[in-house]
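Q: dITP/XTP pyrophosphatase, please. Structure only.
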Amino acid sequence: MQKLILASNNQGKLAEFQSLFDKANLGMSIIAQGELSITDADETGLSFIENAIIKARHASLASGLPALADDSGLCVPVLDNRPGIYSARYASLDGAGVHGDDDANNAKLLQELMPFRDDKPIIAKFICVLVLVRHANDPLPMIAQGQWAGEILDAPRGNHGFGYDPLFYIPSLAKTSAELDRATKNALSHRGQALDKLIAHLKQGEF
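A: Structure for dITP/XTP pyrophosphatase:
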């Protein structure tokens, strides 16, 4: 079985990726980088694609194995697509929270959107970029991207998910991402879309 390093220590992502890979009969076993004591890469890129490539190359170099990385975030057009690549640490940029402080990040987003509140919905989209490298210096990384369109509410709803899920509203379902069950969210989400595209490439023997 081919071993693959996941450039993350998020056990939820690990379980989700492994489950989808198993269903596709890809014969790949995914290992979180922390199991090999690999530290997080410095995300110095200015785009989701750049940061995903940085993380994948870092994990592959440290492990000597192929590596999979994702970079995800929320983009709000009226805020010039902020928080974007800084989604997980948005509030900490101003010292209002620490990296991964969901409550602080959501509070900052709501505050910044106050001047734009009127009778029109505030459009947003979740972005996920997945990068798979065969080795650290792979000149042709495999890249897959997913987008999930929705709106930003003026108050959180729902108890599931994480990050901006309680604010991200899907009009066709009349629910936020945090009100969806896991199976529904995975089928619709930006990460689910990107994974489907990546798996399609792998099933075609492009790895």
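A: Brief note, in case it's useful. The radius of gyration is 17 Å.
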